[in-house]
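Dear colleagues,

I hope this message finds you well. In preparation for our joint manuscript, I am sending the Single-stranded DNA-binding protein (Crocosphaera watsonii WH 0003) sequence together with its predicted structure, so that both groups work from identical material. I would be grateful if you could confirm receipt.
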Amino acid sequence: MNTIQLKVLIKSVQISHVGQDSKLMVTGNCKFQHYDHSSPNKKKTCTLKYKAFGYAARTLEKLKVNTTCIISGSLDIYSPNEDNPNHQAILNISTVIPVEILDTTEYNKVVSKPKSTEKAVEPKASYESEEPIPF
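The corresponding structure tokens are as follows:
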């Protein structure tokens, strides 16, 4: 089976309606990072065309450009031809999960406790009646 799961950055979104039923189709470009075996420890970025139908298309329709998503889908790989001398791949997206990337630098800072020089204050006893409190 030709399935793939990737974390991608959506770079463009084009919305169209296809077929007699005018079904929603979303196409565009996305980027993902990968490691190259020729240069260890260096991430490279690859651009990939995509298309989506159904719920995945609805989700992509609502997203903004430069949104990070976890996607699941399949790759259609086309052989070289007269117009394109290289192989081409189109990602068919079946599931989209938008991901919010947080800046974790604030969470990684070491916070020191303030030193207290004051003595602890004891609570004062109250002189209320000792009647039981109904529950």
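For the figure legend, we might mention the following. The mean pLDDT is 80. The longest strand covers residues 23-35.

With kind regards,
E.M.
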